[in-house]
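TL;DR need structure tokens for one chain.
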Amino acid sequence: MVALFLQTFLVSLPLFLTIGAGWLCAKVKLLGSEVGAALAKFSFTVTIPCMLFQSMRRIGELPPPDWKIGIAFFGACFIVCIAAWTIGRKSFAMAGDESTVFSMGAIFSNNVQLGVPLAISLLGEDCIPAISLLISINVFVLWLVATIAVEVCRSGSPSYLRTCAEGLYRTVKNPVIAAILAGLCFSYFHISLPTAAESVLTGLAAAATPVALFSVGIGLAQYRIASHLSVTAAETFFKLAVMPLTVYLLCRGLELGRIETQAACLFGCLPVGVNVYIMSREFNVVKESTANALLASTALSSLTMPVFMASFGLL
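>> reply
TL;DR here they are.
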């Protein structure tokens, strides 16, 4: 068990050290936060979409994902979300909108900037169909469910049609989703690219992992844990312990294949996603504790992710 953990930890260590390098460069003022924001934007809109587009173009060569992965992963999201929402209300006396964003932090991960590079580096391209399915649904569900829940708590009578339309619009305009859909079209219709375009896309795709992870590190340097420690600890515990365990149990219960189980559990082990912090700012609730959880969970996941994946026998 210890040997398996060390092997998993050493495989993932360079990826987390890349995050650390970005954090260090920001802390010593070698790079400013505006550089991190620009790199994050470049990663989200260019390099990661290029990597996913190139991978999805070859999806016909890979076995299709077991659709039960959606049931396992989002079933776990539902269970953990309800539990976290209840804890927020009962234990921390949060208002409904505060508890909603708190519970989102317990289930939604940094899937694109951190999850995609980690999954492809650790699991290989065989995981692409599975993670693409999770990302596509996740983007829509995050904003749709959170927005409806917050509006219900605040007004009691949200416009469900308008909220669903806004959620769908956010999904379609997302460059990551656009790249996945474009790659699927190119694969289905067997469309090839000119050699020059292929070379450009390959180069940009190769830059996706280091640029994304480095930008995460720079972004984390602007946060520090100074208050709301009990809420931060609870949210971090839900995200790094309860969520991966629940995902794993549902994967086993549904008898998912190894690659789907690996992909779902790896995504379950990821730290709190930056989208949750954006959401907390958008709704103006629990901003400090969400920022704390983002920082704490990212730092701790370098240890908890190898522990869980090794314990589950998935790496």
